[in-house]
Amino acid sequence: MTDARTALAQAAERFAFSPTARLDAELLLAHALGIERNALLLDLSRAVPDSFWPLVERRAAQEPIAYITGTRGFWTLDLAVGPGALVPRVDSETLIDAALAHFKGRPPATVLDLGTGPGTLLLALLDEWRGAVGLGVDRSAQALDYALANAAACGLADRARFVRGDWAAALTGAFDCIVTNPPYIGTDEILSPEVRDYEPGSALFAGPEGLDDYRLLAPELRRLLAPGGAAVVEIGHEQGPAVTMLLEAQGFRVALHRDLGGRPRALLAH
User: Fold this and answer.
1) Number of folded domains in the chain?
2) What is the tens place of the pLDDT at every residue in 137-158?
3) Does one domain contain both 37 and 82?
4) pLDDT tens-digit profile of 106-137?
5) Are residues 55 and 94 in the same domain?
6) Domain around 135
7) Is residue 14 in a domain?
């Protein structure tokens, strides 16, 4: 039977399309073994189960790792994720950083996450702000199923509510903090098969320039934001000026936040 060291090398060769080929292989093998990756790396002589190789085939077809394992780490949480829900990205943690910095010493009481997907931004913030309650909105029933499961698994079901809806339509009231990671990819942009062929297009594409949903959201953010509150909006790295103009037209002051790679990633409007 193949040992782990050999199997990892063979799998990584199949994943040449991925910039993290070896890591991908390690995550899949740890999943197949039912152990943490760190435990796998401490003993690479262990036998490899037959269940590993079908996982390798799925990844070789460029299916996202998160869909294969069913989980993705984000901020301090491990979130369940799968087809129909956008895979949480580490770049989106920029929004969490920006929100925590803005509200340092005066945590908000209410949080709204527009386009919540599997609950990514909302649950990360509620885990930080233990006195806050939040609402997540998404048009995808599949994504909301993951969000509900994640809220329960993270012990946040009593403070997180989820509704199916089209952005802020029919929402009333005011929220201290609003976060959103809307679709912002132009319809003609070229994506990797891993994203294009598996993740929901409704969570990715927003018209020719990728700005359609920002145009809808900007006035809604103004309508729903409580006095003294702030909204944090994810952007594509070339969209800062255009989205800033949309927010400033609603009377917001806007600050840019960059991700760990130094790219423009979030706008904080207040």
Assistant:
1) 2
2) 999 999 999 999 999 999 999 9
3) no
4) 999 999 999 999 999 999 999 999 999 999 99
5) no
6) 74-269
7) yes
CATH code, 178: 3.40.50.150
**Region of 262 on the Ramachandran plot (φ > 0 left; ψ -120 to 50 alpha; else beta):** left
Cβ atoms within 10 Å, residue 112: 29
- AA letter at 77: L
Q: Distance (Å, rounded) from C-alpha 240 to C-alpha 180?
A: 15
Structural tokens at position 69: 């394992």
- For residue 200, give every residue at least 6 positions away whose Cβ sits within 8 Å of its Cβ, in sequence order, or none: 84, 85, 86, 140, 142, 143
Q: Is residue 15 part of a domain?
A: yes
For the cut 80, the answer to whether the pLDDT of residue 238 exceeds it is yes
Would you place residue 1 in the very low, low, confident or very high pLDDT band (cuts 50, 70, 90)?
Answer: low
CATH of the domain at 32: 1.10.8.10
Q: Do 137 and 113 touch, CB atoms closer than 8 A?
A: yes
What are phi and psi for residue 103, nearest 5 degrees? -100, 15
pLDDT digit string (tens) for 166-187?
Answer: 989 889 889 999 999 999 888 8
264 assigned to some structural domain: yes
Q: What is the pTM of this model?
A: 0.93
Do 119 and 46 have their domain in common?
Answer: no
Place of tokens 């255009």: 242
Residue 239's SS3 state is coil
Tokens 């806007």, located at residue: 254
Q: What are phi and psi of 64, to 5 degrees?
A: -60, 140
